[in-house]
Design a protein that fits this description.
84 residues, mainly alpha, 71% helix
């Protein structure tokens, strides 16, 4: 399986058969990689506007991870309903 973080976004976007979710995921991975590069500069990292947005992102990710942990996967639902 291809690691989406290492696939150039332009290559995925050019593939007309790629599902929209994959294209969106590749674009997000590319943006995150760019953000990590920008945050290597301490002055950028410590800027109040960046700090504010990072805190918002942290809250959003925590909430999304929490929701993801609470929602059972379909495989668990079907596995528990299957006869022995």
């Amino acid at each position: 399986m291809t690691n989406l973080a290492t696939v150039p976004a332009s290559r995925e976007v050019q593939n007309c058969e790629a599902p929209a979710a994959t294209v969106t995921a590749v674009a997000a991975a590319t943006a995150i990689a760019g953000l990590r590069r920008q945050l290597r500069h301490q002055a950028t990292f410590e800027h109040p506007a960046v700090d504010r947005e990072l805190r918002k992102l942290e809250e959003q990710l925590a909430a999304q991870f929490e929701l993801g942990c609470q929602a059972p996967g379909r495989h668990r639902i079907f596995a528990s309903a299957a006869p022995d």
